[in-house]
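ARCHIVE CARD
CATEGORY: sequence design from structure
SOURCE FIELD: tokenized fold
FIELD CONTENT:
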């Protein structure tokens, strides 16, 4: 991507898109195509086609999606499949029609089978049954990958698909009903400290294991891949290390300096027992994650305290 290129970041106000925008600016890119959700409804095909035809961006980061944690996915399955299929179909097809040079489609580690061998290799895609709590979301993301691959094959486009592990960082969703575990626990521990509550409730058993990637590292990886990788094979982006939910809760508890107890609510689902990506492919391409978990959590806590 030349520094003078026009770059469309779909979803630039979200966790991922805002980090990609920050990183691109820091690297000297300056021509951006950006639309908020109020300015342009990405589920409307004619609006998306109109935007792409009028603006003709050179490169596209497809970071717009309806996302959420285990509870939101379980409660709004129809919205998760419908909105994501619509957004990605509209953008990928209109990117092709308007002659976009290269596109980066953001997938998710939940596309992999529930009982995939750990760490999860890119080859595990479609090798087994999905985790039921987020199957509609995962099916939409798998459709996006297959769409990029099909367009590359039939139309000779250059669309890459990347699979980030669980992400966290600035501009995350801290709503307790719809967020992922890391921002939820940051908020719960901060509020418990403030209210001097005797305990914090963590969902599930605390045993599931998850890998967490600081979103600025993800943005860096996406830009790196846009500049150094072409191909239809998907690429995992992660840190290559995981922690149990109990370990995560303890790190956040320490960082927030909360002195109360941690209680588990086992009536809430655990979801997939472990989600750890095999990141040897991206490591071999020349990229590794930089931010240690504790440092990323510290930055996220600081952002939350200053902004929420
Ligand atoms: P997942 O990675 O798709 O399962 O999504 P989440 O980030 O929502 O959940 C990860 C794990 O953290 C699950 O085992 C949840 O039950 C557990 N968890 C513990 N406390 C919380 C919480 O307050 N919010 C969320 N979203 N998950 C929690």
């Amino acid at each position: 991507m030349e520094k003078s290129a026009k770059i469309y970041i779909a979803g630039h106000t979200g966790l991922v898109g805002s980090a990609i925008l920050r990183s691109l600016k820091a690297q000297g890119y300056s021509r951006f195509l950006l639309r908020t959700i109020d300015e342009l409804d990405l589920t409307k095909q004619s609006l998306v086609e109109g935007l792409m035809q009028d603006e003709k961006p050179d490169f596209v980061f497809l970071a717009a999606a309806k996302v959420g944690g285990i509870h939101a996915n379980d409660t709004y399955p129809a919205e998760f499949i419908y909105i994501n299929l619509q957004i990605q179909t509209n953008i990928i097809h209109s990117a092709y029609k308007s002659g976009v040079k290269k596109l980066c489609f953001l997938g998710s580690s939940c596309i992999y089978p529930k009982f995939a061998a750990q760490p999860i290799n890119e080859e595990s895609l479609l090798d087994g049954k999905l985790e039921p709590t987020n199957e509609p979301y995962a099916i939409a993301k798998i459709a996006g990958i297959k769409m990029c691959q099909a367009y590359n094959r039939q139309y000779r486009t250059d669309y890459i698909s990347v699979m980030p592990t669980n992400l966290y960082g600035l501009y995350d969703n801290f709503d307790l009903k719809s967020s992922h575990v890391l921002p939820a626990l940051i908020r719960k521990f901060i509020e418990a400290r403030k209210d001097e509550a005797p305990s914090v409730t963590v969902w599930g058993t605390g045993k599931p294991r998850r890998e967490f990637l600081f979103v600025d590292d993800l943005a860096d990886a996406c830009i790196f891949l846009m500049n150094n990788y072409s191909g239809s094979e998907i690429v995992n982006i992660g840190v290559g290390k995981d922690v149990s939910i109990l370990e995560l809760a303890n790190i956040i508890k320490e960082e927030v300096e909360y002195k109360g107890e941690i209680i588990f609510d086992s009536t809430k689902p655990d979801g997939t027992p472990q989600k750890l990506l095999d990141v040897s492919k991206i490591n071999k391409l020349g990229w590794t994650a930089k931010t240690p978990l504790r440092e990323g959590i510290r930055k996220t806590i600081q952002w939350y305290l200053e902004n929420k």
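CARD ANNOTATION: The longest strand covers residues 159-164. Residues 77-98 form the longest helix (22 residues).
SHELF: design records, drawer C
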